[in-house]
Amino acid sequence: MSHDISDNSPQAHGASHGSEVAEHGNPFADPGLPAHLPRRTDIDERAAKRAERQVSLLFIVSMLATIGFIASYVIFPIDKIVYIFPLGHVSALNFALGMTLGVALFCIGAGAVHWARTLMSDHEIPAERHPIEADDEVRADVIEQFKTGAAESGFGRRKLLRNTLIGSMALVPLSGVVLLRDLGPLPEQKLLHTGWDKATPQNPIALINMNTNRPMKAEDIVQGSLTFAKPEGLEEDAPDFQQQIAKDALMLVRIAPGDLKDQQSAELGFDGILAYSKICTHVGCPISLYEQQTHHALCPCHQSTFDLADGARVIFGPAGHPLPQLKITTDEQGFLVATGDFDEPVGPSYWERPR
Amino acid sequence: MSTTSGTSTGATTPSSTRAKPASKWEAAADWTDGRLGIYSLAKANLRKIFPDHWSFMLGEICLYTFIIIILTGVYLTLFFKPSMAETVYTGSYVPLDGIRMSEAYASTMNISFEVRGGLLIRQIHHWAAIVFVAAMLVHMMRVFFTGAFRKPREINWLFGAGLLFLGMFDGFMGYSLPDDLLSGTGIRFMEGAILAVPIVGTYLEMFLYGGEFPGQDIVPRFFTIHVLLIPGIMLGLLVAHLILVFYHKHTQFAGPGRKEENVVGMPLMPVYMAKAGGFFFLVFGVIAAVSAIATVNPIWSYGPYRPDQVSTDAQPDWYMGFSEGLIRVMPGWEISVWGGHTLNLGVFIPLMVFPLVLAVIWLYPFLEAWVTGDKREHHIADRPRNAPVRTAFGAAWISLYLVLLIGGGNDLIATHLHLSINSITYFVRVSFFLLPVIVFIITKRWCLGLQRRDKEKVLHGRESGVIKRLPHGEFVEVHADLSQADKFTLTAHEQPQPIELPAEVDENGVARKVGRLAKARAKLSEGFFGDSGQIAKPTAEEHAEITSGHGHH
């Protein structure tokens, strides 16, 4: 495509409008920059004055809003709640500060943009681009300089020097890597056990109801309910409570004997009461939704669904294996107790997890 | 260096050869120039030309929200305590009175309920972060669909990609800091994801959390990463990004007088200073007003984090939604490898697909450059319709992103629209593979349709809406010829031709070896620029034939 008529200067192209260009030569040739059309504010001084007043008004509103911000900060108590339609009940201070700050900032912006659009020149100006690449002469010069520098350093010629430098530079970051070692302990067997592993048949650990903080009897667990429990001795004010509860949390359900589909799971329970880990085997969210008709437990984070009547088999969602189950029984007084740890690690699976 | 000429070097030697400054302002400028060399810098930039188009503001929104985030973030650090030490709440928010919580959560409550204006700054910080990532994504789409990533801007495209990636993670870490029930759930998810990494997963988890989840270390560590490490890298990338924008000069759309060799627009001083500077205040003002009327992340209603508690409708901030979708719709899948080791593919695959989803769109420019073999600089932005394959690819990518967002919010969609969560999940699983293909085909055909329409407009003029009755009774619609400027604009784009493989046998009749890569490239090139990839734009001959009477209404 030829660009013979593509002069950019506004004067040159001013006349060359429309189809004259098309008659001779290329019908799609570049007509060049269009002529500048004056705005009202360019030719009418009264319009310009009006624009000036509008811009100034915006700046004045901004100033008033800033004063309003400071006044709001002083006047409104932080706990005052007001009703503002359609927002509802909101903090008066937060609303007043936010709106005044918003107006103060917005009006500066609106004023500046209005100023630029009405009163500053809107002549379009072409500027030349230059290729990003250097020309051949510069390129040759730089390569020559680099070669000279490289030769003077002897980096390529003195191999011993070069290799030892590379070796030392490669080794020195290792110190930094070594320093990261104490970021945390090694995994060892930590993920393998929970707080229930202190329980033995001789010294069982009672299941403590999360809500009442008391041990439970079998008859406390009614059919259709979901009860959360923790091991006896784990108190909320313990320094490692958060770590412990992240593994020990239990959920108890009672399922009618006729509904139990998995014999092995039923044997781990007591009289239809089953104790499963509350921590999802997908990525560790606590499972908290229970559908009593179907015995399905649903994790609210990623919707893994487990059939608690069938050994907590995964029936939907991203979890990869069933919820671990804790073997429970009752002690002499009839309280629900555990006599050992889960038979597999709780929570998300990991590389070393036995399978 | 002084020369040994005989001129006297007495006390009267003037300090500078420059003419006496006309005003105090000039004197101050001279003083600064003598030390910083500002005149040479200003000569190149003070009247630098910026082309005008609404879509060029998208990048500005990113820059301004970044500044807002830094300003408000510094304020928040004055009050926030990045500590997981336990405390009992005694503040003015009655529902949590006497509840155990971490210092991090308690100090965020303090910012929200005791520090005057603290809540507003927290809200501005969070809203600005939400807008920041959204603006980066939309800005990236603008650059993608207009082909503004082509030479010489490929490296700047990657800088931008880095900023988006870091911005997403810094946002995630930011909303994890208050240690509320929602953010703790996000950190717990991260633990599960890290554990799924083969071989080193448990080690990474122990080193990151300083022991077993949740430990005491994750909030202070995230704090340092969130306020120092990532913003520091981002600031460096941002400066590099802007320097390159200045150095390359901005792209512009085709139009009369706009060529590859020039840039047409208005000067930095005063028009762009006023417009861009003003736009900063507009963005800041709008975000401040939004923060006054719309609550984001009300941590007081979530409560402090407990590993055995969770709320329903747990959602990450929107920009993490597509990764949430990946993790939700992936079916559970654990396999046993190497004698008893567990490979948790159900979590590990989404973890690996997550960066891949982003990498696909970031690497596309290099695929296109390889297919076209184009080594020239490009400064004229393409209209999306004139690059149908690229546009279709981008649209397909967006559809993938959106369908994953749906997957990430499947519980909300299920409860709000009364749909089965299982059906939504199955829909997303199928759509993940199918939808991008459908969208690709539709978008490409759509672009070709628009190209045909452009061609018709150039050759036949636009429909004027005027109906004329001819003497013999026929009704015709008068078509108005396009202006020269419009004709030029609609035909200014380049149409590359597909590359051709060399003949199978050379001139001596010997079979030529053509590599598989070369064949793939030729095939892709045919798809991009062959008959099915673009509509040949009108030629001067076609135009002459139509305008010379026949068919000219």
TrEMBL record, chain A:
Keyword Cytoplasm listed: no
Gene3D superfamilies: Rieske [2Fe-2S] iron-sulphur domain
A Pfam family hit: QcrA_N
Subcellular location: Cell membrane
Residue ranges, annotated region (Disordered): 1-23
Entry keyword set: 2Fe-2S, Cell membrane, Disulfide bond, Electron transport, Iron, Iron-sulfur, Membrane, Metal-binding, Oxidoreductase, Respiratory chain, Transmembrane, Transmembrane helix, Transport
Keyword Hydrolase listed: no
Stretches assigned to the Rieske domain: 229-337
Topological relation to the membrane, as annotated: Multi-pass membrane protein
Transmembrane segments: 55-75, 95-116
Family under the similarity heading: Belongs to the Rieske iron-sulfur protein family.
Summary of the function given for this chain in its UniProt record: Iron-sulfur subunit of the cytochrome bc1 complex, an essential component of the respiratory electron transport chain required for ATP synthesis. The bc1 complex catalyzes the oxidation of menaquinol and the reduction of cytochrome c in the respiratory chain. The bc1 complex operates through a Q-cycle mechanism that couples electron transfer to generation of the proton gradient that drives ATP synthesis.
Name of the protein described by the UniProt record: Cytochrome bc1 complex Rieske iron-sulfur subunit
Source organism: Kitasatospora paracochleata
From TrEMBL, chain B:
Chain positions covered by the region annotation Disordered: 1-21, 533-553
Superkingdom to which the source organism belongs: Bacteria
Domain Cytochrome b/b6 N-terminal region profile: 28-254
Subcellular location: Membrane
Enzyme Commission number(s) from the entry: 7.1.1.8
Listed Pfam families: Cytochrom_B_N_2
Catalytic activity: a quinol + 2 Fe(III)-[cytochrome c](out) = a quinone + 2 Fe(II)-[cytochrome c](out) + 2 H(+)(out)
Keywords recorded for this protein, A-Z: Electron transport, Heme, Iron, Membrane, Metal-binding, Transmembrane, Transmembrane helix, Transport
Ranges where the Cytochrome b/b6 C-terminal region profile domain occurs: 255-449
Enzyme class: translocase
InterPro entries linked to this entry: Cyt_b/b6_C (IPR005798), Cyt_b/b6_N (IPR005797), Cytb/b6-like_sf (IPR027387), Di-haem_cyt_TM (IPR016174)
Cofactor(s) recorded in Swiss-Prot or TrEMBL: heme
Composition bias type Low complexity, residue spans: 1-17
Transmembrane segment boundaries: 56-80, 126-145, 157-177, 189-210, 222-247, 279-300, 347-367, 387-406, 426-443
Membrane topology: Multi-pass membrane protein
PANTHER family named among the record's database cross-references: CYTOCHROME B
Name of the protein: Cytochrome bc1 complex cytochrome b subunit
Organism: Kitasatospora paracochleata
